[in-house]
Write a structure and sequence with these properties.
CATH architecture of the largest domain in chain A: 3-Layer(aba) Sandwich
CATH architecture of the largest domain in chain B: Orthogonal Bundle
Helix content of chain B: over 70%
Distance between the termini of chain A: 33 Å
Oligomer: heterodimer
Radius of gyration of chain B: 22 Å
Number of helices of chain B: 13
Shape of chain A: globular
Largest sheet of chain A: 6 strands, mixed
Number of domains of chain A: 2
Distance between the termini of chain B: 42 Å
Largest interface: A-B, 34 and 22 residues
Number of domains of chain B: 2
Number of strands of chain B: 0
Chain lengths: 364, 264
């Protein structure tokens, strides 16, 4: 297990106060935050390249602050990869094993397995300059994993790649993780990346941890409007709690004169009547009802009629801009392409949308 | 009209470059006007001439060795670390470049007349009007320069390479000689060659500190000066041509180091 407690870093205009994080053995944890939030400073402190003002770092049961980088057992893949240009791919890969004076015999099989998973056996004799972007990423990952680090640090591992190669590398990272379970801390500003790979996510904005949790908790249920904004949340509304229905265990909210119903159980007693809150639903959680099809029970409580204002086609999905008739509440709706075709939507068409109660989320 | 303007701009710029080339080439070619005079071969093979060549080669090489010995770590420190007084230190490296060489040599003469200077001379090595004085004068001229040039080469190598090497288990020393040194090698070599050439051609500080004794402290540039002073044109030409030949060889050497790795 990796444990960081009370890390405080003051550097130029950056001020990171009391940063904490915990990563389970074999976990894939994301530190997700906007560019310029000081994430790289945290990585450098964990590695030992930067001395934090205060803070304690445990890797396994060993406390490592005070140790130089080479004795921490941490491998690091920087954003620019920094493959050694004067060494062949093979020499790059074996660099860590040689530098640590490890017995090559013990590692031979493991490295061979890594090379196979990474599909780079045909590149071993090449110099890094003669590799494609995706190949470089593979080699850099392999070089980091070869000496069996206790912690793998990745800095924006999918940045700067073509979309199709990005997906390849994403799969590869997933495969690597399921096959070899390196404990990984990955820094990124791209929440799609974090969503597709991470099991735990720490949201880090302006030098502060805003939320820690399992991936779905964070994405569907941001703790604050700040987190929701950072995650690119589209459908955010100011709402007022109208009543709390004890019998049905529902909260009834009002937005622009429209009423929304959500389960009260998720919020314990924090939501008293009359309180102003922020209501949020992800675009892919909004459903457009197909006429003539029965609506499921869980969707019945939040059905609104409105008009399609605009449609934007994307590679894998369509974005539909919808506005309710009553209250004129705008919704951005994301629909997979196949569903979009079945719905036969067009601009100006009047449709009904349904919101699953559990997908609606309140923030105070 | 616009095209015309573009072309005349182009021609003006290239024309200026060609003028500089012709200027230097003409200067070198004019030397050959006097080549082959009766004193020419005699001067070329004279023991004092050969001595000057040997002395210059040796002194410049030793001076460069010491300059690199202290300059490389200094360059690394200036390139990679933040420390108090870094700015002042960096500025001081330029002192030999802005002070006239004669003044630099004179400062040494003054220094060796202070109690500390006298102590060094009596208990250690004699510098004034001796061969070590040549090395010292050349060292003083190039130590700042070689540090500056090597710093520029090290600046080009991203510290991230070292960070990765460290994380993979290298000590700072290992990271330096396994990664940073080979990556910056060509740049460092070019810096060293240029500094050596500067030492090889050094005149002012050397002549002031070590004097101009034929067969003792007379390096090539000094020999040229004394040959001219005694109106021995043939000897001066021979020495200048040898200097030019060395110079061209050095430039060629620096060119060769210009080939570099393909970085990402």
């Amino acid at each position: 297990m990796i444990r960081i407690e009370g890390l405080t870093i003051l550097f130029e205009s950056f001020k990171i106060m009391n940063f904490n994080i915990q990563i389970e053995e074999g976990g894939f944890h994301f530190l997700l935050g906007p560019t310029g939030s000081g994430k790289t400073l945290i990585l450098e402190s964990i590695m030992g390249l930067r001395k934090p003002k205060t803070g304690r770092i445990w890797i396994g049961d060993r406390e490592v602050q005070g140790l130089p980088p080479e004795r921490r057992g941490i491998s690091y893949v920087p954003q620019d990869l920094a493959l050694f240009p004067h060494l062949k791919v093979k020499e790059n890969i074996l660099f860590g094993i040689k530098a640590r004076d490890l017995d090559m015999k013990i590692y031979e099989e493991y490295v061979a397995a890594l090379i196979e998973v990474m599909k780079i056996d045909h590149l071993l004799e090449r110099y890094p300059a003669y590799l494609s972007g995706g190949e470089k990423k593979r080699v850099a990952l392999l070089r980091a994993l070869a000496p069996k680090p206790k912690l793998l640090l990745l800095d924006e591992p999918l940045s700067g790649l073509d979309p199709s190669i990005k997906i390849d590398i994403q799969h590869l990272l997933k495969n690597l993780h399921t096959s070899f379970h390196p404990t990984t801390l990955c820094v990124t500003h791209d929440f799609e990346e974090a969503y597709s790979l991470g099991d735990g996510i720490t949201i880090f904005i302006d030098g502060k941890v805003e939320q820690v949790g399992k991936r779905d908790d964070v994405f569907l249920r941001p703790k604050s409007i700040k987190v929701a904004h950072f995650l690119g949340a589209k459908n955010l509304y100011k709402a007022r709690i109208l009543k709390s229905d004890g019998l049905l265990q529902r909260l009834i909210l009002r937005v622009n004169g429209l009423q929304f119903s959500i389960p009260a159980s998720l919020y314990q007693d924090q939501m008293e009547v009359g309180k102003e809150v922020d209501l949020f639903i992800r675009p892919e959680e909004v459903m457009i009802i197909r006429e003539g099809k029965p609506v499921k029970d869980s969707l019945r409580r939040n059905i609104f009629e409105g008009k399609i204002l605009d449609i934007a086609g994307k590679e894998r999905y369509h974005l539909v801009y919808f506005q309710t008739m009553e209250g004129k509440i705008p919704f951005e709706i994301s629909i997979p392409n196949y569903a979009f075709r079945n719905l036969k939507l067009s601009i100006g068409k009047i449709v009904r949308i349904a919101l699953r109660e559990e997908s609606l989320w309140l923030m105070t | 009209m616009e095209d015309n303007e573009k072309m005349s701009f182009r021609y003006t710029m290239i024309g200026a470059a060609i003028c500089i080339f012709i200027f230097y080439l003409g200067l070198i070619l004019s030397l050959f006007y006097f080549v082959g005079g009766k004193g020419f071969w005699e001067a070329l093979l004279h023991p004092n001439t050969l001595f000057s060549i040997r002395l210059s080669l040796m002194a410049a090489t030793i001076a460069t060795f010491f300059a690199v010995l202290i300059g490389l770590p200094s360059a690394y420190a200036l390139s990679r670390f933040k420390f108090v007084g870094k700015g002042i230190l960096d500025t001081f490296l330029e002192i030999p470049m802005i002070i006239s060489p004669i003044a630099l040599g004179a400062a040494f003469l003054v220094f060796f007349n202070t109690p500390l200077g006298e102590l060094i001379q009596t208990k250690g090595i004699f510098f004034v009007f001796e061969v070590p004085g040549i090395v010292l004068a050349q060292f003083a001229t190039i130590a700042g320069l070689v540090t500056r040039l090597m710093k520029a080469s090290l600046d080009e190598i991203s510290p991230r390479y070292e960070a990765v090497a460290r994380s993979l288990g290298s000590s700072p020393w290992q990271a330096f000689y396994r990664v940073t040194l080979p990556l910056s090698f060509r740049g460092l070599l070019a810096s060293i060659i240029l500094s050596w050439a500067k030492a090889f051609g050094e005149f002012g500080a050397t002549v002031t500190l070590a004097g101009a004794m034929p067969g003792k402290t007379e390096t090539m540039p000094i020999a040229i000066f004394t040959a001219l002073a005694s109106a021995n044109i043939d000897k001066a030409i021979v020495l200048i041509l040898i200097l030019v030949a060395f110079g061209l060889l050095i430039l060629y050497g620096v060119r060769l180091t210009g080939k570099r790795y393909r970085y990402d």
